[in-house]
Recover the amino acids of this structure.
């Protein structure tokens, strides 16, 4: 069987209406236009777009995305024009391919200059038009990371660093946990070779021991679930290495691997939310939850990036702490593929819908849409380049909160942000004239720490000026700068 037929089979397994003609046509066109080209690995170039399309199919994306995956390098590397693509495949596909090409052309050098930030803005702008541009770009990046060892040394460094700083956090922001973990693990040895080498050796026996131990626990929980007649898939996962490294460097862990309780975790997937809680009960009837750190219910309170699951840490055999994650199959799909999974679930709900509907479906389930909106609104509201950059880089993305204005606009702020930070994020004048604040309708102090989902109202009084004490609690560089510059100005006048 030809490789392309295997790819179509993957797509058909989740999308009965897969556009076979489109995918075959795109494959044929890519084969023809990339004919004779080689990758640095010595393989035929087509291997690359094909692998990208395969990654997209495994994320259960629509036929158009898969076709764009196959075509994504035709403009950049095969001299095909936008017009040619538009004529053969239609305007939509041509636009998507040219969107991916533009993002690839952006020079994300990692330098903290204005041009760099402007490039990121363009990237988000492309995303605003169609998120699939970003999904294809992430798949492209993943395959390039998988084959990075063929590139010259400096290039490896630059690309791997960029992956850690921009693409991994971006995929995390989109709720694509699996993509994030893989990108980070591929980049890790290039960016931190020493640490990578050390950690690989050092952690191996711990992983091995934990995995062996997990086998028994898996058997035990499977039996109990079966007795209670709960349909479930029980599996285990090992923590991604880079994620372990980051955790070891947290102050409360202080490089003590014995304090990392989720080196391996047991995962229970069930059909619905009711079964999640039933499974939790069963788990706790076998093993006692660890006091204080026991249960985190991210189903009742999802994480800011939409992650839903119940985590419980229990004392299992030999008083060993074991993390167990319980969620539905759908939540699991979303945790792994994030925003990409919406194509799939939107399609599944309306059985047998056309490919076209499937594509549009992404914008119907509201929950993830707000994230897209948020990403888009960054480029509009953030005037401070440094802050914008920080927000996009590294841990910045993982440690943000989202609050609402009374009008329902979403604002993205760092953890620990206060009503004063919020006011300055809305407008400088509003910041300067703040005299009080209400959060969710209740008066709060100005140093109140906002939480995701808070609705923040600023009470202002015209002609009021900032207070120096605000500098003790604001966390955004924007607010800090505005307040300081007011006082600098004032002192100069004296
Ligand atoms: Mn490519």
């Amino acid at each position: 069987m030809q490789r392309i037929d295997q790819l179509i089979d993957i797509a058909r397994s989740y999308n009965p209406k897969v556009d076979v003609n489109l995918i075959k046509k795109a494959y044929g066109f890519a084969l023809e236009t990339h004919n004779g080209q080689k990758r640095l690995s010595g393989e035929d170039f087509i291997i690359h777009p094909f692998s990208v399309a395969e990654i997209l199919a495994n994320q259960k994306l629509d036929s158009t995305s898969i076709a764009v995956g196959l075509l994504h390098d035709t403009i950049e590397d095969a001299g095909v024009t936008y017009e040619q693509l538009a004529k053969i495949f239609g305007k939509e596909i041509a636009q998507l391919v040219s969107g991916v090409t533009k993002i690839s052309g952006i020079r994300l050098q990692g330098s903290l200059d204005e041009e760099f930030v402007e490039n990121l803005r363009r990237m988000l702008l492309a995303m605003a038009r169609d998120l699939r541009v970003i999904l294809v770009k992430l798949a492209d990046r993943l395959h390039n990371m998988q084959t990075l060892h063929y590139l010259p040394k400096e290039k490896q460094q630059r690309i791997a660093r960029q992956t850690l700083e921009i693409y991994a956090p971006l995929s995390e922001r989109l709720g694509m946990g699996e993509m994030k973990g893989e990108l980070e693990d591929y980049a890790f040895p290039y960016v931190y070779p020493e640490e990578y080498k050390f950690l690989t050796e050092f952690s191996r026996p711990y992983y091995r021991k934990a995995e062996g131990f997990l086998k028994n626990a898996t058997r035990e929980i499977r039996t109990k679930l079966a007795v209670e007649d709960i349909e479930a898939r029980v599996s285990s996962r090992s923590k991604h290495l880079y994620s372990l490294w980051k955790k070891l460097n947290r102050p409360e862990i202080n490089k003590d691997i014995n304090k990392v309780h989720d080196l391996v975790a047991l995962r229970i997937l069930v059909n619905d939310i009711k079964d999640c809680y039933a499974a939790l009960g069963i788990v706790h009837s076998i093993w006692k939850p660890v006091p204080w750190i026991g249960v985190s219910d991210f189903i009742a309170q999802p994480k800011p990036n939409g992650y839903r699951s119940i985590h419980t840490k229990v004392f299992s055999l030999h008083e060993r702490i074991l993390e167990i994650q319980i969620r539905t199959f759908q939540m699991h799909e979303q945790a792994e593929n994030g925003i990409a999974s919406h194509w799939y679930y939107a399609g599944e709900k309306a059985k047998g819908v056309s490919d076209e509907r499937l594509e549009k479906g992404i914008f119907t389930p509201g929950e993830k849409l707000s994230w897209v909106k948020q990403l888009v609104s960054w480029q509009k509201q953030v005037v401070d380049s440094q802050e914008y950059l920080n927000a996009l880089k590294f841990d910045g993305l993982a440690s943000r909160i989202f609050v609402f204005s009374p009008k329902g606009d979403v604002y993205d702020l760092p953890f620990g942000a206060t009503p004063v930070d919020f006011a300055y994020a809305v407008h400088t004048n509003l910041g300067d004239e703040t005299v009080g604040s209400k959060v969710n309708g209740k008066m709060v102090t100005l140093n109140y720490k906002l939480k995701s989902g808070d609705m923040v109202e600023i009470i202002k009084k015209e002609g009021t000026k900032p207070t120096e004490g605000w500098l003790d609690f604001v966390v955004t560089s924007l607010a800090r700068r505005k307040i300081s510059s007011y006082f600098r100005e004032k002192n100069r006048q004296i």
Notes: Residues 109-113, 345-373, 376-398 have pLDDT under 50 and may be disordered. The chain is about 55% helix and 10% strand. The radius of gyration is 25 Å. Residues 48, 72-73, 140 surround manganese (II) ion (CB under 6 Å).
